TrEMBL record:
It holds the Pfam family Fer4_8. This is L-lactate dehydrogenase complex protein LldF. Gene3D superfamilies: Alpha-helical ferredoxin, NagB/RpiA/CoA transferase-like. SUPFAM superfamilies: alpha-helical ferredoxin (SSF46548), NagB/RpiA/CoA transferase-like (SSF100950). GO terms for biological process: lactate metabolic process. Residues 304-335 form the 4Fe-4S ferredoxin-type domain. The lineage of its organism: Bacteria, Pseudomonadati, Pseudomonadota, Gammaproteobacteria, Chromatiales. Keywords: 4Fe-4S, Electron transport, Iron, Iron-sulfur, Metal-binding, Repeat, Transport. It comes from the Bacteria. GO terms for molecular function: 4 iron, 4 sulfur cluster binding; metal ion binding. It comes from Alkalispirillum mobile.
Amino acid sequence: MESHSHEFVQRAGAALHNPTLQQALGRAKDGFVLKRFNAVSALSEYEALRDRAVQIKNHTLEHLDHYLLRYEEAVRRNGGVVHWAADAEEARNIVRDICRKAEARSVIKGKSMVGEEVGVNEALEEAGLEVVETDLGEYIIQLAEEPPSHIIAPAIHKTREEISDLFHRFHAKYGYTQRLTEVPDLVNEARQVLRQKYLSADVGITGANFLVAENGCNIIVTNEGNGDLTSTLPRVHIVTAGIEKVVPNMEDTTTLLRLLGRSATGQDITSYTTLFSGPRREGDPDGPQEYHVVLIDNGRSTMLADEFREMLRCIRCGACMNHCPVYGAIGGHAYGWVYPGPMGSVLTPLTLGLREAKDLPNACTLNGRCQEVCPVRIPLPDLLRNLRHRQFQARMGTKRSRWGLALWGWLARRPAMYRLATRVQARLLAGMGGKRGHISKLPLGGNWMAGGRVMPVPEGETFMSAWKKRQGGRG
């Protein structure tokens, strides 16, 4: 997928002024938050599960080479083939070669974020293959020729009216000429169209939520069952997964599964949780003739070796973006690449480079909600601060921002001068507000106040002086 992360500021501005997008985001965001809250509140051991999940992921990352080799050995015992891809280009080439050797003409795909990351669809379409997404959200945005805007709800930015228009336009060639407007009717029509794609596909490609080292299984969780059909009906099944997806054993996997559904969609468990362990065996009623797993690095080894290792604990639940005020205001497309929201603000600069995605680490208020809800306790605000520090060290910001930060740092290291400066600032701001009680114009604050936003007038004294008074002069 082509990156537009360098256009974040422009794309965010356009999103804020898109009434259709704002309508779609407004309908969706509260549902995710409330459902998660209810599901988590009903599970008394939820915090203990989070602690256990952190231990599992940290242990696995500490011994990642060992568990990956165990997984590869188990897949081979089951009759499958494991391929190793160092980067996106190698991953695309591997998938394309498997399809070519299978003499495939049509491919169906289950939802796979790593597939989006390495550009599988584009590579196969360039090779002349028909590629059809089977997850309903992914299918909708494929028709619209758009990337996903959310990792678990790819078409969250689309209104029902827009989806109705898409289906009316693209399904006529299959004999569906009536314009439908009700959600059940739209879902049923998509199901009817996709059914023929399942039956005629040569290759099915899925992602994996977890890879189990002890038995070679890959686990996918869905609410539509499309992943199961994609995995079992075509004669070739290809699994694409990042190397961090491996988990030591089934017991550890159940811990992570109990967190995943609750954090993602507010469900105790998703409708379908399926284990696949290889090609069809003698006596099996269905299943592929060939089973391939493509393990993808694409920068993950670099993360493993530096201060961003904790990002590899991510189980792709989407809770961080569901609770992010920035994502909730602008949606996913503004981030310009596969991973939006707080997780994308960390992953995109690490994968594509800080210069390509220089605005993303700063697209955060550091309010901490993402860390608070993350099921594996990833300290996303700390990681974003680390990226900002790297940018400052590399002199990537504007001269004005660098000078401003340097001045603030110089003052912060001199407490007496810092207190004096803040007292002067508080009094100046109080004077600027006058009798109005608010400030409508502020030096260097033009963008913040552009939409009519105003700032309340400070009381005229600093927090430190007010605290000292409250403590009776004790400081």
